[in-house]
Amino acid sequence: MAVMNIEYYSEVLDMEWGVTVLYPDASRVTEPDCTDIPVLYLLHGMSGNQNSWLKRTNVERLLRGTNLIVIMPNTNNGWYTDTQYGFNYFTALAEELPQVMKRFFPNMTSKREKTFIAGLSMGGYGSFKLALATDRFSHAASFSGALSFQEFSPESQDLGSLAYWRGVFGEIKDWTASPHSLESMAARSDKKTKLWAWCGEQDYLYSANNLAVKNLKNLGFEVTYSHSPGKHEWYYWEKQLERFLATLPIDFVLEERLS
């Protein structure tokens, strides 16, 4: 598996931007001239970047047994959102990034059924948000995702000032009615994306996950949700990524996964 650090000029963000890509070995691609290689977008959490998964987990070892192109973009602490302070991270990742990656990798699939997304914490929110708002992903996964602020105050967790949160989402009095809430995006979605979520029972986001999953199911979504003892830690996210990969319609070689 090749590891590539790519820099390109983002017209949306008006700056040089970086993305890390894992590209499958030739032996993992069924047809050498395949123009339909499946792709997974793998998102980082707060204070992370495009290299977080590589630095904090054995994701390269885990993914070498797949036939996936894995794209790990950066969003700073922008919550995969077009922020109030002018950095349009959502547009950059939802619209511009796939086009840029297709130029680099013309054999990357354009089919929804072979396009997947997953993320941890802030990236769990980003995963569901990008899936619900674009209807371009067949499967989306959240690991300890910050899926709802309906009953959760981020500033109470020392995760940033009130000015920071207003800079990202604006003034919000009712989260579920906000255009940034998953519930608002879900109401406009075609509901064809299969949602997959896990959260640790000792995680401070556990109640937020329970609430968001309940709301999404009430809106008609297929959500596979599990929880087990666990904290807000990389140890659990790596294990859950492995579980999620096993559910996807991709090649996933078990013996190499364990080697």
Automatic annotation (TrEMBL):
One of its GO terms (molecular function) is acyltransferase activity, transferring groups other than amino-acyl groups. It comes from the Bacteria. This is Esterase family protein. It comes from Streptococcus halitosis. The lineage of its organism: Bacteria, Bacillati, Bacillota, Bacilli, Lactobacillales.
